[in-house]
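Q: what sequence does this backbone want?
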């Protein structure tokens, strides 16, 4: 899918934004997509739509409907986080002034695959506004830099196998290359720097780490690294090849506790 709309960020850059779930729900989540694909993938639309949560997913520069990094501009995870945080905080402040009774003051953040670096930087920028954080299959910084520089598809994307999820994923994979390799090149250049990881211990959000249990033990090593560097992290090692799909209920339960409105038949 392509982004539902475009907004202008504080930097002046235009970004594509996809919305999932209930657009009038009080609980807001920000989702950060993996390397090589655009935003907007919903692991389980039926579950998401009944959970009582509104998810916003922003295309990073060069992906989908977002402007690429400008000529001569150094792509940066932290610069992107500053831009998104500025836009989100502005909208939350305006909503509070206009309808304080219906707006939640804190939000959750999800990072899938390489999007986890951006989710962590965003959580750091949002401070106490971000009360919940989840990372799914996010590699530790050096390994993530190597992955970003390669031309391979992220394993977290490539291993999705549920037929309907694969079909939905195909749309965001196509949207991710509408500007050619601009998005992937931007990610590779941004992730060479590990500045985004310098302030991990400042993140106060309760964090859920979900990694695949694989033969090379890469998932467990990544989980241990983040557990050491985050203040409030709990880890789940999954036997599933597609944890973003198979653990979506658990992820929503962590990111939006007490907001679930899921009928028993869908649990």
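A:
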């Amino acid at each position: 899918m392509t982004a539902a709309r475009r907004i202008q960020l504080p930097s002046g850059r235009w970004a594509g934004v996809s919305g999932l779930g209930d657009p009038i729900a009080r609980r807001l989540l920000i989702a950060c997509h993996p390397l090589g694909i655009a935003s907007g993938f919903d692991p389980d639309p039926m579950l998401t739509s009944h959970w009582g949560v509104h998810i916003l997913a922003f295309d990073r520069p060069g992906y989908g409907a977002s402007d690429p990094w400008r000529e001569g501009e150094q792509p940066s995870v932290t610069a992107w986080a500053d831009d998104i945080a500025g836009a989100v905080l502005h909208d939350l402040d305006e909503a509070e002034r206009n309808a304080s009774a219906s707006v939640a003051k804190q939000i959750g953040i999800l990072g899938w695959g390489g999007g986890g670096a951006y989710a962590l930087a965003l959580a750091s920028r949002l401070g106490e506004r971000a009360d919940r954080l989840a990372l799914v299959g996010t590699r530790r910084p050096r390994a993530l830099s190597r992955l970003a520089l390669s031309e391979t598809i992220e394993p977290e994307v490539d291993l999705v196998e549920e037929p309907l999820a694969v079909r939905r994923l195909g749309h965001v994979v196509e949207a991710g290359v509408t500007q050619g390799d601009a998005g992937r090149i931007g990610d590779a250049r941004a992730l060479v720097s590990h500045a985004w990881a310098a302030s991990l211990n400042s993140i106060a959000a309760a964090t859920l780490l979900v990694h695949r249990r694989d033969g090379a033990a890469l998932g467990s090593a990544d989980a241990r690294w983040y557990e050491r560097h985050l203040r409030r992290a709990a880890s789940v090692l999954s036997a599933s090849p597609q944890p973003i799909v198979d653990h979506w209920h658990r992820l929503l339960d962590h990111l939006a506790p007490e907001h679930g409105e899921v009928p028993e038949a869908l649990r």
